[in-house]
Design a protein that fits this description.
alpha+beta; about 35% strand; two-stranded antiparallel sheet; 1 helix; about 80 residues; 5 strands; single chain
Length: about 80
């Protein structure tokens, strides 16, 4: 069973989306990703080895979506996820 700890969905421009993806990539490289939307915030510390999935779907109405998913297991005494 999964528990959603952070979710944000909004319509923004392509340049804004690419800027957000760059910030996530920079955080991934540094080992810490910080997400915030309004009062919601989450700090992620991905492990050094992650599973990466990329998928493109086409809906029956012709709408396309690109989904990227990064998964990792928490390990050791340090929590990988902090909600602040």
């Amino acid at each position: 069973m999964s528990n959603v700890v952070f979710k944000n969905e909004e319509k923004i421009s392509r340049p804004e989306i690419s800027d957000n993806i760059r910030k996530i990539a920079d955080g991934l490289e540094k080992g810490e990703i910080n997400l915030k939307a309004g009062e919601e915030a989450v700090k992620l510390r991905p492990s050094s080895s992650c599973e990466f999935e990329i998928k493109v779907e086409e809906e029956t109405d012709g709408e396309l979506s690109l989904e990227m998913e990064i998964e990792w297991n928490s390990n050791g005494d340090e929590a990988d996820l902090e909600i602040g």
